[in-house]
Structures are given as structure tokens and as C-alpha cells.
TrEMBL record:
Cofactor dependence: pyridoxal 5'-phosphate
SUPFAM superfamilies named among the record's database cross-references: PLP-dependent transferases
A Gene Ontology molecular function term of the record: transaminase activity
Identification of the protein by name: Aspartate aminotransferase family protein
Alphabetized InterPro entries for the sequence: Aminotrans_3 (IPR005814), Aminotrans_3_PPA_site (IPR049704), Class-III_PLP-dep_AT (IPR050103), PyrdxlP-dep_Trfase (IPR015424), PyrdxlP-dep_Trfase_major (IPR015421), PyrdxlP-dep_Trfase_small (IPR015422)
Organism per entry: Comamonas terrae
Signal peptide: none
Keyword entries, A-Z: Aminotransferase, Pyridoxal phosphate, Transferase
UniProt cross-references to Pfam families, sorted A to Z: Aminotran_3
């Protein structure tokens, strides 16, 4: 047994509060994990429906991936980043060949550690390819990280507010949010309107971004999440990105796709952008590449953007980039998920989960919207009118879930949820992609119980 009170007292004195731990008070201490569950020091299971922000897509303590890490630990655990090792090359080849097969472009893979760091590298690739243009487009509701560069293309001002002026701040464009679209429009009509409004910026020089005499745009790239992550797992209409990409291609603007949260099968495809019929120019990945066992991230870019002539050695550097523990794990993730029709498994589990949420919605009018793609799912918590955001109710749900006082089949249970959305009223579900039907059934019982308790609190 741990001394929780002493640990929390020490944490309050010695740990920075600058990370996200203190969104919940008091912070929760976990001591174990396995499969779809986290465990506290009393052994209470907490069904985890967010899996470390979609970093542990393949379940806690995945036996195959843990075995690979131990094997690599014994074989080659460390090597300086200026030298090569086999799995770096093999993993890059796997990702690049898969991209070429899908999108018809040769490309290369560049590694780093952490999603925000890979975003930083992508900004270097883009700025270098555009002769130093530093301005980008991005979406309202978009999230790309909290380093200085990533904050400049992340829509939330609160991540920039205390850190000075951001001269390279992105121009933010509305994202088609079907549940909160204008009245009288279908989701597709709303999507088309956003594309038209964006295209209007290029009609003449007085819309401030386009020089028709030289056919040049002041902006180098558009950073997109195909499905918004922190923004609340918002799924755009299927026609949206095709329209947007045509505008970008017509005006020489690169599309950089952020797959940090939605990549590695979360939506039923390796990359979520595959659901929308467009080809990226740059693609950034992280999180589930190593199932949370090692910090490794990277990007894929088209050959003409990243070949050694235009992006030579030393263009970026990280001591731990392409570390052998991470690349061995990443390669094993790719092999493991390509041995079977993994996407079909995810899509079928997602359909079952979504059907459960729809049944839950019938019993609780506070669930205003449910939607999703694969096992990236959302439930928007509202007041009893089914539309007005109800952050307070969701906050209560999160707190009660982490108390570990729910019940399932006569046993104590907890529930781990993640909060997202423009109004912080959306449960963003990212369960293990290995989740069983029985665990999904358990999730629905616990969510029903949790909503009832929170409304009574």
C-alpha cells in the first residue's frame, strides 16, 4: 500500500503544476495497469476509455509489444542518433512504402520524440520548402501541441497568452462542426460554405493573402487534423477535405496532416486522412506508434520536400530521435497490425460502441450528440435541452468516475474519461483498439450509472 496523503503532499511541494495533472483535484494516483484497465493502490479496476490520450491503442501491457521491448533492451537499447541501426531504416521503409502505395508519392520519414517536436520539425520542412515563409493556416478547434512553434498553429489563445507575442500565429479557419452547424443547413452544405469562404480569400489581392501578379500566397501550408482531437473528436462531412485540398493545390499551399492522436488505426484506417480521399503533402505521427512504451514520433513528407539536397543533414536534431527501443516497437506495431484485417476489427468494435452510446442517449436527454469514426467516438454533454453545453455536469462525471465508487456485477469500479470540445463538454472516447464486447457492455453500464449519479450530485 502506498501512502497517498504523503505522496500528494510531496507532489504539491516539489512538482511543477505546469502540466495537465491538476485539471482534477485532488490528482489521481494509479499504481497498475493491464489491458483496458488502470488500478489504484486498493486494486480497484478503472475502465480506461481514453487510453493515455490515444497513445496506448493496443492495450496496457500488450504482451507482444512488451516482449519486443525486452528483446530490444537486451540486444541494442542505446545508440547515438548520428549512427544507424536496423529498425530505424526498416520502420521508415515500411511507412514510406505504405504511403507511396496509397498516395502515389515517393517520400521519406524523419523521426523525433513527442508529437509537438515532430510538429516543430514539420514547420522546418514547410518553411524550408517555401523559401522561408513562416505563416500557416490552421483550424479553429485545432490542437498541435504546446511548444512555441506548435502553439502558434494551435487555436487556443490560452496556450500562448503568457508567453509573449506570436508574430507567426496562424490564420484560423472554421472547421465544419456538424452538431453545431448553422440552422437551415445540412452538414454537407455547411462544409461547402466553409470551403467557398476559404477560396474567396484568393479572389484578389485585397483579401490580404494572395498576389495574383505572381500567383503567390503569403501562407506556406494548412495544418489539419482530419478529425479534431482536443477539439472534441469532431468528424467533418466526407466531402470537406476534397474541396479544401483542391483550393490548396490550385494555389500552391501544402497540406500538413496531423495524425498524432488519430493515427495508428484509431479511426479504422492506419491514418485517419484515408477516410477522406485526399493525399497529404506532409504527415505527422506520434503517440500510439510505440503504444506508450517509448517516446517516438516522426513525419513523412513527399520526396521533393525532404530529399537530402533540400533538407540536408543537421536540419533538425534530437539526441533521442529514432532511438532503437522506439523504432523496434514501432516496427512491431506496424507488423502486428498488418498481419490481420485490423481496420475491420476496429470498425466493427466502433460500430458496436457507437450503438451503445445511441441507446444511452435515449435514456439521458443530456447527451446531445453522439458520433464517431472507428473507435474515435464522442458524446456531447448538454443541459436537458439537448444542445446547450453543460461543462459542469461533465466535470462531475469525471470526478465521480475517478473516485472508484461505481459498481459492476457486484464489484467496485472506476471509469477514466477524457474531456474535450470547444466548450469542454465532450467526452472523447479513445478506448483500447483491443477492447472486447464485454468491456464495451461494461462501459455502457458504468456510463449510465455515472450520468445518473452526476445529475443527482
Amino acid at each position: 500500500m502506498i501512502n497517498t496523503a504523503q505522496l500528494l503532499a510531496d507532489e504539491a511541494q516539489y512538482c511543477s503544476f505546469g502540466d495537465t495533472v491538476h485539471y482534477v483535484n485532488p490528482p489521481k494516483i494509479f499504481t497498475g495497469c493491464e489491458g483496458s484497465y488502470m488500478y489504484d493502490d486498493a486494486g480497484t479496476p478503472y475502465l480506461d476509455l481514453q487510453m493515455w490520450y490515444s497513445a496506448v491503442n493496443f492495450g496496457y501491457k500488450n504482451p507482444r509489444l512488451e516482449a519486443k521491448m525486452i528483446e530490444q533492451l537486451k540486444e541494442l537499447p542505446q545508440v547515438a542518433s548520428q549512427y544507424l541501426h536496423p529498425t530505424k531504416i526498416e520502420l521508415a521503409k515500411f511507412i514510406a512504402q505504405d504511403a507511396e502505395k496509397k498516395w502515389g508519392h515517393k517520400g521519406r520519414v524523419h523521426f523525433n520524440v513527442g508529437g509537438a517536436q515532430a510538429i516543430e520539425d514539420s514547420l522546418k520542412v514547410v518553411r524550408n520548402a517555401s523559401n522561408g515563409k513562416s505563416l500557416m493556416f490552421a483550424f479553429e478547434g485545432g490542437y498541435h501541441g504546446r511548444t512555441l512553434g506548435a502553439s502558434s498553429i494551435t487555436s487556443s489563445y490560452r496556450y500562448r497568452r503568457r508567453f509573449g507575442h506570436f508574430g507567426d500565429r496562424a490564420q484560423f479557419i472554421p472547421f465544419p462542426y456538424p452538431f453545431r452547424r448553422p440552422k437551415g443547413m445540412t452538414a454537407e452544405e455547411y462544409s461547402d460554405q466553409i470551403v467557398r469562404e476559404f477560396a474567396r480569400k484568393f479572389e484578389n489581392e485585397y483579401h490580404a493573402i494572395w498576389d495574383p501578379k505572381t500567383n503567390q500566397c503569403e501562407y506556406a501550408a494548412f495544418y489539419v487534423e482530419p478529425i479534431q482531437g482536443t477539439g472534441g473528436y469532431v468528424v467533418p462531412p466526407p466531402n470537406f477535405f476534397k474541396g479544401l485540398k483542391k483550393v490548396l493545390d490550385d494555389h500552391g499551399i501544402l497540406m500538413v496532416v496531423d495524425e498524432i492522436q488519430m493515427g495508428f488505426w484509431r479511426t479504422g484506417t492506419l491514418w485517419s486522412v484515408e477516410n477522406f480521399g485526399v493525399n497529404p503533402d506532409v504527415l505527422v505521427f506520434a503517440k500510439a506508434l510505440t503504444n506508450g512504451l517509448n517516446a517516438l514520433s516522426g513525419l513523412w513528407a513527399r520526396e521533393e520536400l525532404i530529399n537530402p539536397t533540400v533538407f540536408p543533414p543537421g536540419s533538425t536534431h534530437s539526441t533521442f530521435a529514432s532511438n532503437p527501443l522506439g523504432t523496434a516497437l514501432g516496427l512491431e506495431v506496424m507488423k502486428m497490425t498488418h498481419e490481420i484485417d485490423f481496420g475491420r476489427q476496429v470498425r466493427e468494435s466502433g460500430a458496436y460502441f457507437l450503438e451503445g452510446l445511441k441507446e444511452l442517449q435515449k435514456r439521458h436527454k443530456e447527451i446531445g450528440d453522439v458520433d464517431g469514426l472507428g473507435l474515435a467516438l464522442r458524446a456531447e454533454i448538454c443541459t436537458d435541452d439537448g444542445f446547450t453545453p453543460n461543462k459542469a455536469l461533465l466535470d462531475k462525471m469525471v470526478d465521480i468516475g475517478l473516485e472508484g465508487g461505481l459498481e459492476y456485477q457486484g464489484q467496485k469500479r472506476g471509469l477514466v474519461l477524457d474531456v474535450g470540445g470547444y466548450y469542454k463538454n465532450v467526452i472523447t472516447f479513445a478506448p483500447s483498439l483491443m477492447i472486447t464486447r464485454a468491456e464495451i457492455d461494461e462501459a455502457m453500464v458504468l456510463l449510465d450509472q455515472l450520468l445518473t449519479k452526476a445529475k443527482q450530485a
